[in-house]
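Fold this sequence, please.
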Amino acid sequence: MLARTFLFLQGPASPFLRRLANALEAQGVVVRRINFSLGDAVFWWPKQGDWFGKRPEHWRGFLSDYLRAHGITDMVMLGDGRPLHAVAAELGMETGVRVHILEHGYLRPDWLTVEPDGMSAHSRFPRDPEAIRGLAAGQPPVETGRLFRSSFLTYALYDLAYHIPNVALGWLVHRHYRTHGPVHPAVEYFGWIGKGLTVRRRRLRAQEAIAGWSSAPAGSRFLFPLQLPGDYQILRHAPGGELYSIVDAVIQSFSRHAPPDAKLLFKIHPIDNGLSGWSPRITRAAERNRVSGRVFLADGGDTDRLIDQAAGVVVVNSTVGLTALAAGKPVIALGAAIYDVPGLTYQESLAAFWSAKPSPDAALFDAFNRAIAATIQVRGGFIGRAAIKAGVQHVAERLLETDDRLPESLRKPRTSPVFRYERELFNLD
């Protein structure tokens, strides 16, 4: 096997990357690390890493020199949307360094993504049904069901362990570093405290909204599961790069083109911190488009149950779209989604979707699942001892493979994606 040297950039707020490095080093692989913040160092300790402490505009030159100086053959990072990671992925592709993107799995629960080059619009995974069937041929059925326990408390404690050192001492150690999140961690926690104090009220309002939405005829209920406004899947892989404008445009389309008895329910993301201001925004948009009695917002509720009740599901590129496809529901994906494939998602206009809702091809969906499980998914998780142990083993095995499961011929350039629905949503000339 050719000698390989891996460079790790930022990972999840958990010990996952450190244990993954240990597993690779046990196989004789050299692993290096660049820390950007104290939080990175906390989860890398006691391993030693190098530091990037310059301004973001110096990152590309710094990394280019680093890759050459240390003979880096592979880079590993969590997602390709963070500004520093986006530059690294682009540079890796230009210089022949293999880029491995880790993320939570497209399949749920208890899967992880290990993808070359990038995700969504930058993914190598094909959108052609015949190519997908070819990848699925001979592959076993996809395992379903939960393997590992999940703990929100563990997630929260890890998050605190990452952010508290950054907030307390970051000004001294890495004054040029800026968190990849949309708001300061202190503001994020303030939002969560507010949500915690209003649990009962939010639950009652969600029940009322769902009841109002459910009063529509069975074939006239539409669901839009919201993503996080600061999610890089929105910022980099959605029309306009901004969720609020998309929501406004969807309400306007619903007002103009949906049958008069149809109703639309927006469901707030489970880990939305409460600072997105969805209630007044959606209320104003519904009033402006004269559909106040037909548009609802729920901060709660069982997503699977809501999907079962829906006649159609509107998403940007959320993995909830896959859940809806699994339930046999019509889905329209407004952004770059790996599952936006003819035969799976609706391919015509959003205006027509409100009335024409063909079901997804069940056989093609099965092939899609087999294909992604065989190429860019492994079992495991970032949180919890058992999940991390399994994830580390499976990710390490995948990283050490010498042959690409998705050939380089499927590589997409890291240019700004073109979105099919951008013109319709924003009335562009």
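The longest strand covers residues 98-104. The mean pLDDT is 92.
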